[in-house]
Design goal:
The structure holds 2 protein chains of 2 kinds. Chain A contains 16 helices and no strands. Chain A is mainly α. By secondary structure, chain B is mainly alpha-helical. The chains are: A mainly alpha, B mainly alpha.
């Protein structure tokens, strides 16, 4: 297994290099001259030339790419240091004046707020996870329970009606759900706060988060139900199910003990695919309910062309995605003994 | 099924075409038996006709004209109280009342007469504004029904064109990677890995950020940009499927036979194999149209999609968010329901197409 993990990690390097190359090409060439984007309405040639020098875009492409790679690595060490040595903080003031990339913990800064990008990202991840972890858990649990029920009555009118409702529910835009729910439950009925966020985790979870969480679960339920139902139906046609029934087991035991366990494998795969998404969060929910999460931060950055934030978020979240995918594959072995690492 | 019919004599285009027609004819027969499929096909065709109609100016020509009062009521709510409209119509008259006679101290006083003459020359015609419109009006008194039709045009157009581009990119790359393999296959796999390792939403937003800030691409702002964003980020799923299909087909007898009679690689890939995987393409196309329509609505809502001077279901929803608070729900309903109908029909059509084109079911 160690060899497998090592090989997977080794394979990540070209992919990660590719992600950085893609981001570099996008933001340095496709998006036009970054200096002009940063300069905005400044038309003074000298000033633009200055910005160009500061950003390093006057250098040849390979040097810029090297800088970018250095910045990515630097972001890691900085975040790490800020967690391990808290005594770094008082020095931050005089470090800001020191010349950029040379000093050890001078990370990339946001163009808009001049805040360090690594700090922005690490501070926004908490609210996002506060929303997304309950969403993923609830969606899976409710989805699996409902899917067993629907698979149990497969082929009946109830089954077809529920599937029909799911198709229709999936067709309504997420935006409509959010707008209507926020208006109805937040504004009209006043059951939930319309929007907001606080510093206390428990208050967030119990007061501000329920409506966004319920919305996300509700919207995610229809596709999950359809998918999980198809997983159950795939399993029901297998020989072992017939054997179990032939033994005289009740349909309930067959479903709960035999089918459920086997259907859990594709379900877990599906959760594994969805898992990296919880770090990005739902930018729509975060925007509507003004939750200071990662998704909203990225959206704000997109709206004000704050390239460093978008670049960093993309590269780091791609890393997170790759690592989670690896973890899921390793955990897979624990669930399904038939899986072997090749 | 088509392996048998693609005999060596079938090098010319026509017989190959005939061979694939068999599959399509069978599929069409199966689809015709599927009531749900036919109804959804009819709905989708209706929406596409509406799109063409509004594109050519046959319907919804006046969507941008302010024909009603502000927040005009829908017809079925005719006569309901409309506070917003009343407030607006009283406002200008209130302003007309002169506050005080300043001609003694106003240095521009000698010109008063000249101005009066000038204003007398300008004819003011007051167009009567409708109190109620079929599906109500928006803040500027524009007809919501016409806006919804015009919005459908934008959203469907973006969805269809972006899906077509994504299919072309995904199929071409998938064919090359699956059929040729080797170095170029590895390169394309690397590409695929790069695109899929970035979370999809983030990829879209990164593309949107770049495209919206780029001065060179400013000329293409709006619909072309949205199409490009969706097509460049959405090809990966199609690529994966087509690639595995090509790997499967590359070893089949009919491809070997084509090779034996001297068909080039390109010819084998796109003349011989492509018709046999085209049903996958069609189902994927249908599925991606749905996905892209949803994505376009969200992008336009966020202001990253179509510009303000055009209308899409997304921009309508963006306006509707503020309107809902003052109780004007019809724009939200019009955009939300028309989109839901189209997307439901399209998804059910996709399911029916998948069943009809499944070669395992005869």
């Amino acid at each position: 297994m160690g060899a497998y993990v090592l090989r997977r990690l080794w394979q990540m390097i070209p992919t990660l290099a590719g992600v950085m190359l893609l981001i570099f090409v996008l933001f340095n060439w496709v998006g036009g001259d970054p200096a002009l984007v940063l300069a905005g309405k400044i038309t003074n040639k000298d000033q633009i030339e200055n910005i160009r020098k500061q950003l390093g875009v006057d250098q040849p492409a390979y040097v810029q790419l090297g800088y970018f790679a250095f910045e990515v690595a630097n972001g890691f060490t900085c975040t790490w240091r800020s967690y391990t040595h808290n005594d770094d903080k008082p020095k931050a003031g005089d470090k800001a004046t020191a010349d950029a990339p040379a000093s050890k913990c001078e990370g990339v800064r946001s163009w808009a707020t001049n805040e360090e990008v690594s700090k922005i990202l690490t501070s926004r991840i908490g609210p996002t996870l506060t929303i997304m972890i309950p969403v993923l858990l609830l969606e899976t649990i409710i989805g699996v329970i409902l899917a067993i029920g629907v698979a149990y009555v497969r082929g009946t009118l109830t089954d077809r009606a529920i599937m029909m409702v799911c198709t229709v529910a999936m067709s309504i835009s997420f935006l409509v759900y959010i707008i209507v729910a926020q208006y109805l439950f937040g504004f009209q009925l006043g059951w939930f706060p319309v929007q907001g966020w606080s510093d206390s985790f428990w208050r967030n979870l119990t007061y501000y988060a329920p409506l966004p969480i319920m919305l996300a679960v509700f919207v995610g339920l229809a596709p999950a139900l359809r998918l999980y139902r198809s997983f159950f139906l795939d399993e029901i046609n297998h020989d072992y199910v017939r054997t179990a029934r032939a033994k005289g087991l009740s349909e309930k035991t067959v479903m709960m003990k035999h089918v459920l366990r086997n259907a859990m494998i594709p379900i877990l795969t599906n959760i594994g695919i969805a898992l990296p998404g919880i770090f990005v969060g739902s930018f729509l929910l975060e925007t509507f309910f003004s939750i200071p999460g990662l998704g909203r931060e990225i959206l704000v950055a997109v709206n004000r062309s704050d390239f460093p934030v978008i670049k960093a978020a993309t590269v780091y979240l791609a890393m997170v995605t790759m690592i989670i995918n690896l973890l899921v594959d390793v955990l897979y072995k624990a669930v399904d003994p038939r899986v072997s690492f090749k | 099924m088509s392996a048998a019919s693609t005999t060596p004599s079938a090098v010319s285009l026509a017989p190959v075409h005939q061979a694939s027609a068999g599959l399509w004819k069978l599929a069409w027969r199966r689809l015709k038996r599927d009531k749900v499929g036919m109804v959804s096909l009819a709905v989708v065709l209706f929406f596409i006709l509406m799109m063409i109609g509004s594109f050519t100016g046959l319907v919804a020509k006046n969507w941008s004209k302010e024909i009603g009062v502000s927040y005009a009521n829908p017809l079925f709510m005719h006569g309901a109280e409309n506070l917003e409209a009343v407030k607006k119509s009283t406002d200008p008259s209130a302003k007309k009342i002169p506050t005080a006679d300043l001609s003694d101290i106003d240095p521009l006083a000698p010109r008063y007469k000249e101005w009066e003459e000038r204003t007398a020359k300008i004819k003011i015609t007051e167009t009567p504004r409708a109190e109620s419109l079929p599906l109500g009006g928006d803040k500027w008194g524009r007809d919501v029904l016409q806006k919804a039709i015009k919005g459908a045009e934008t959203s469907i157009f973006v969805g269809l064109v972006a899906a077509l581009f994504a299919i072309v990119i995904g199929t071409a790359l998938g064919a090359i990677s699956g059929y040729l393999g080797g170095r170029i296959g590895d390169l394309l796999e690397w590409f695929y890995n790069i695109f899929t390792s970035i979370p999809y939403i983030l990829l879209i937003l990164a593309f949107a950020a770049v495209f919206s800030s780029s001065p060179q691409l400013a000329a293409f702002k709006g619909v072309p940009t949205v199409v490009a964003i969706l097509a460049f980020t959405g090809w990966t799923g199609i690529y994966r499927l087509i690639r595995s299909e090509y790997i499967k087909h590359a070893g089949r007898e009919y491809v070997k036979a084509a090779q034996a009679i001297g068909a080039s690689d390109t010819r084998r890939m796109f003349v011989h194999i492509l018709p046999n995987v085209s049903h996958v393409c069609l189902v994927q196309l249908s599925q991606h149209v749905v996905q892209f329509i949803k994505a376009e609505v969200i992008l336009s809502f966020l202001g990253l999609g179509v510009p303000v001077d055009s209308v899409s279901w997304g921009t309508m929803l963006a306006e509707a968010q503020a309107e809902l608070v003052i109780g004007k729900w019809w724009q939200l309903a019009a955009a939300g329901i028309s989109m839901a109908i189209l997307v439901t029909a399209f998804s059910m059509l996709t399911d029916s197409l998948r069943d009809a084109l499944d070669p395992k079911i005869k």
